[in-house]
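This week, study the protein below.
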Amino acid sequence: MIRLASWRCGNEDYYGAVTDQGLLPLSPETPEWPSLREVIAGDGLPGLEEAARRSETTSARLQDPEKCVFSIPVPAPEKIICIGVNYPDRNAEYRDGREPPPFPSMFIRFARSFVGHDVPLTRPAVSEQFDYEGEIVLVIGKGGRSIPTSRALDHIAGLTLCNEGSIRDWMRHAKFNVTQGKNFDGTGSIGPWIIPFADESQIADIRLTTRVNGELRQDDRTGRMVFPPRFLIHYVSTFTTLVPGDLIITGTPTGAGARSDPPKWLIPGDIVEVEAEGIGRLRNRIRDPEPDKPAREFPS
């Protein structure tokens, strides 16, 4: 299975295949596709398949991953839609005695709030309540509106992973939204790569885990999702037009740091690893922000 990623080496941005021997750049030979977003827009999965075919015939030289920096696989997606409370035990974590809701909770994140694989995540200066959330991401390849569940999987180009880092106290600043706590620059990650989507077995019931410094914190299976991928694509496309490169982040299992007693917040030096069967492992270290922090002009 080919793994397609985006990265930066020197002053140049590339995309291509991740191999056991190194990074194989395809972008210099495919100027008609400036980024993986355009590859995906080339009819979704067929575009990724064409990129895979070219990776077998290219004469491009391998690049050393140690000398490159991974980016989020799809640069500047039009929409990043995040799903909340999508595993049964996650609903129970709220301890409100309610049954799972009939429709998914969701919110929007901005691309600037994410970095790539092995790039440090930044704990904001204004909070120590930095948390992790391991998730699987649907990469939309074929756009559409009001997509029926029976054809929903045809609109997936590929799969990737997310650590949907959250600033918990900022998620409670207002009454009905979590946007503030979900969109600090560089607090989440997506990657390392995109795995082209072949069939439903790739996501129907795979294991998803999150580890912090090697300690298993989250562990569940996608077969237990309250709202499976078919329904999510159908539901989201009912109110907005999906376009190639859009990302649907499908929700996190129980075990986030906020739910521990006492809470287990991320601190500088921690390493978070999100892993899913058949997709890969996304790894990031935590760092403090740069020292020249702006003054805070609101109450604590």
Q: What stands out?
A: The longest helix spans residues 45-57. The two ends are 49 Å apart (CA to CA).
